[in-house]
Amino acid sequence: MIEVLFYVFAAVALGGALGVVWAKSPVGSLLYMVATLASLACIFVLLEAHFLAAIQVIVYAGAIMVLFLFVIMLLNLGHDYQRDLKGGAFALLSFVIIGLMAGILARQFGENAITEPTAGGRAIDAALAEHGAVGAIAQPLYTTYVVPFEITGILLLVAIVGALVLAKKSSL
Amino acid sequence: MHTALVEGGQATVDTAAQFEPFFPGLIILLPLIGFLINGALALKHARVSAAAVRLGGELDLGEGDHRPETHTLPSYVGPGVMLAAFLIASVNFIRMLSVELHEPHVIEYWTWIATGTFTVDAAIQLDQLSILMTMIVTGVGFLIHVFSVGYMSDDGGYPRYFSYLNLFIFFMLVLVMGASYPLMFVGWEGVGLCSYLLIGFWFSDREKSDAGKKAFIVNRIGDFGFLIAMFLLFGMFGTLDFVPLFSEADNLEYGGSLVTAVTLFLFLGAAGKSAQIPLYVWLPDAMAGPTPVSALIHAATMVTAGVYLVVRSSVLYALSPIASATVAGVGVFTALFAATIALKQNDIKKVLAYSTVSQLGYMFLGVGVGAYATGIFHLITHAFFKALLFLGAGAVIHSMHRSLHRTNDHQDPQDMRNMGGLKAFMPITWGTMWVATFAIAGIWPFAGFFSKDEIIWQTAAFGGAARAPYPALYQVYWVIALGTAILTAFYMTRMMVMTFHGSNRTGVEEAKHLYEAPPVMWLPLMALAVLSVVGGWINVPEALRETFIGLGPLTSEWLHRWLEPVTEQAHHIQEFNLGEVAEQAPFGGGEVTWAVISTVLALATVLTSFHLVIRKNVRAAAEDPELSGFSKVLYHKWYVDEVYDRLIVQPLIRTSRFCWRVIDARVIDGIVNGVGWAARGVGFIVSMFQTGTVNTYALVLTIGALIILGVSVF
Amino acid sequence: MTALLDSIGYSGWVLHTLIWMPILGIGLVLWADEQRAKYVAFWWSAVVLILSLGLWWAFDPTVGGIQMESATPWIKSWGVSYALGIDGISLFMVMLTTFSASISILASFNYIQNRQRPFYALMLMLEAGVVGVFLATDLFLFYVFFELTLVPMYFIVGIWGGARRIYAAIKFFLYTALGSLLMLVGILYLVYRAKTLLGAPTFAYAELLQVPLSGTEQLWLFGAFALAFSVKIPVFPLHTWLPDAHVEAPTSGSVILAAVLLKIGTYGFLRFLLPLFPVAAQHPVVVNTMLVLAVIGIIYTACVAAVQSDAKKLVAYTSVAHMGFVVLGIFALNVNGLQGGLVVMISHGISTGALFLLLGMLSERRHTREIEEFGGIARVAPWFATAFVVTALASIGLPGTSGFVGEFLVLLGAFEDHKGLALTATLGVILSAYYMLPMVQRIFFNPLEKQENREIRDLSKREIVILAPLCALMIWIGWNPTPLLERMEPSVRAVIERVEGATIEARARVEDEVNEGQIVDDGQE
Amino acid sequence: MINEALVLSSLLFVLGTFGVLVRRNAIIMFLCIELQLNAVNLAFIAFSRLMGIDGQVFVFFVMTVAAAEAAVGLAIIISVFRHYETVNVDNFKLLRW
Measured between beta carbons, which residues in chain C are less than 8 angstroms from residue B110? Predict the structure, then answer.
């Protein structure tokens, strides 16, 4: 059952990704992207990452994609239907390269089939059982990774200020 | 100042008392002090006169007592220190006379250079040879200093002149008193420096300045030989101090290649300093300096340093028959060669210059045939009569110059064709110079006779030795030496006649201003004239002892005996390897016979040439026709300068230019700049990938990622 | 004197002070106002000079190794420390540096008219850098200082230089930087080997000396180090940056360049190349290559110098010839040669520095350096001429001046094992007269024809103060070099023993490897 | 399922890369970068089944950084757009000197 669901969501995600690359209009790309993100969120659930799945939907699909949409609207690009794909030798070369890359990666990940349960999986299951979905990730986040966590906070602050400064009309 | 010899010999029963030096350091120090005082005065004066020159004029010196102290003090300081040095040297000489000194007396002052393996002290060596040389240098030097007071009195560079002269004496004394080769080399190059400064004393004249430069560079070629010889000696002995070096030299193989190399390189140095073929070319040009300088440096002292060097190294030369034959050969050929050039020169100083080269050749012939004491003997007599000749010429030039100057005549005051009949105006100069001429011509009983004749005789005797290395060669030398003696008599007589005899060619107006030199100038002439007569009596040959009335027995072979401690080692080596020298000349006849023959020949030549030249109608320089044929070749000094210029100087300059403009600027910098251009070219090609399009960069980035991925996977 | 120095703990702090005082001075100079900056810089450097003079007494001449050592860890994980020390080789280089820094700052008073503060700040920075190079006993620290000297020199030439200053500055920078990068690779390899041996990386000189290296490694490393130092010296054919840099640099830049920057190269040979790679250093191919290059340098550059029309360029070329003598002495690999080399370094620093000063004074007066423009100047500037002649004579190695002692010892040392080469090098003695005397003659002698030359002033008081100590040193060293020689001897001997200590076995090993064709000689690339 | 998730992650990443390479619209290129980030997130989560919870923590960080990046990146695009009136990257070759 889970396998089937995985394949369904995987197909949607891939289709969405192709759409992102191929869609003519930016808004179209954006919507395909939302689809991909949503199906990825589902796959996260299948992989027992419930909290991240939630965040994926709330932060990514909800916040970041809306930010993109705002910008597209702000710049009035919504009606820009001109194809902006590069063509010719460049696209061909790019295709060959990413094909090779995909081949290498898929081959690498495809072999040596891993069967659950693994040690890591058991540990996550135990953590989930003990702390719940949020607590399982909060536990390491506020202990082992507290310093990176704080730094991330500062990064966000800097990003806010930076974005303000850059986007402001008149220079400071 | 002086450290007495400490070896406890005083208490022994030996009657030979210890030699106690009398402030020998002062002999060297005094001229240095003189140099410092005169140098300070010169610097002081130079600032004043420079201010005048800057305003476009010359500094007026004023007359007599009104002259500034910079022009009065040197007259006392310069000769004063020389007299003091001479007196101290004399005291030492007298003290040495009264004792038997077999080993050189070495006095160390401080360690000059000391590395782990090489040590040389600032030390002076007192022995028979060095004290004799010191006497000559300070004595003749003193006389010439006195002469200079008169000769240079009106010159703007008066204090500078005396400072150079004192400095020269200082270095010359270092040269002769130094106790090691490096210290001798200090003096060696130091005198070269002073010679350079004094030749170019009137440096505003391009030719004179050039002459000084030429002297220095040619001397440096010789110094190159000296340096190499020192390096070889250090390799052989591990020391360059004379005493240990010569005492170990006994162990060397006779005729060994190393000792031959050393002596030949040393001789290259000597040839440079003493103006022998092929390095003689600087000396005639050196006549550009003030005439007393020519007398002191280029006749009496510095140029004889080469002879001193060979005698000092006599042990080494005795060990190398090849080097000795070379020394003698170069000497005798130089003597002949220079004499031929002297035949046709018209500049009074040039004649004397070539005559000096020629006489130096004789000295080298002497030391080359192992007659070291005889070489020194000729050095001494030559110092007297040649200094006298130069000073006499100086007096003539001084007088001529003043006369031409006062009448605003722009003729050459040194050209003998412009002189003639000066006997009437300058009797003392005339008389004393004739004494010198007799001496140089080798006429009995003047000084030159004894020394020159003995050299010629020793050549014959050496060639006839039992195991002489190249007997035929020495016979050739002997014949040339005899022939050159005749040439000498001829050109000297020619010079005297052209200058002093015949009709006066200066011009009527000019003749009114010709005077005898002042006493400060002719007194040294008189002193030297006396020495030119009696100087030879210090070493009357054994064979002539009886013929020389009165003094003979007293002074017979005195110099030989005096120098015995210095030369005996060399003589032993020579005698051991070559056997006794001959008693007979190649064509028969003993020493006395040939002495008589040569003096008669010389006298005859003087008389004949006197009549020949006086009858010849000499014309003033301006009217004299161009020479042709062989005379022209001689007049132009066999075109040696031109040949050197073509073969050495110009190619060197061309090579240098080639190195600079082609190798440096094109090849090396070409490569350097080429690398720069190549880097730019590569950059230009690579910059084509910098399209500015983000996608391209992303593609390249991806390719990079792919490569890393591929590498990490496979 | 020694007691006095001991009582103030002199040897404990002096080495640090000599580096940090000038750096402190940079701040002071930048803080002073434009017109006073030169006085601040001069007096500050004079204080440094006086402080450095104490080394003469504080230095223990009986010790061959490095003394007054001190080390503070700097970057512990790399084994880098701030370690200073001095020995008989660096002693005189340090004193020469402080001395010539003061002199050249004093000589810039008139020459530098614009942007004075940065100029004097850079001069002090240069002083600090060079002193640091000579004192560092940690290879990392050494490298830092080595590169640090480049920067101020680059700006001094590039900002205050002549017409082609940019070309000259860049040429100078690239030449030197290229060589030094290879040296950095060499240092890192050495440290890597030390790490495999000792377990931890270390840059300390004394510990790196203990690292055993195979013959092949030594040859490669020798090549890397030698290239860096050969550029600095400069050894023929890497010398072409020098004439350009000298000609374009302001007087004080030339003085510092000639007096101390070039010495960094030969100092590097003595301090690092010979002791660290003793087997390579006595490999016959290496020795012969270096000697031949040195001799070519002596003869070739002397010839080139003789035909220069620009007086400064002439003197620049003679620098190459003199440094050739130093290299010759170093690779004679005996006490005489090494000591001679050191004396030539000192003497060249003094005499060539003085020549550049004099030429600088001359071009300040006439605004040209073309020899043909001058003539007869001795008549209007007799003191100037006297100083110049004395300096020129010291430069060509007349006995009784400092130049002779060094050249004589070098040639004496070289003659022991390499007769032919030493004989050829001795020709340099003739050639030195061939290039120097015509210049002296054409500038100072000959008729005084040009009106501009007639107006040339003689030496001013300040100039006399600059030149008098230089001339005095030239003559003093010429007559009494023993105090110098005895201070450097133990250190030089230590280097020699270190080189000779590399066993015959090791030498044989290298030769085997060469015969098997594994390596080629790389003494010079 | 871990293998499958990883393969999916690779494909998504490659597609994102392709998008960055061939699209000229700066916003869409940016979107594609987000796609790449998401592919990486997926890989992290898949690996966290093997290695433990740390992978998920990392995803958390990636998302934060992605948010910050989106904010700054979009701001840059806006200011560029103001200047050039376009977001087509062929029209502003800022990286060329």
Answer: 480, 482
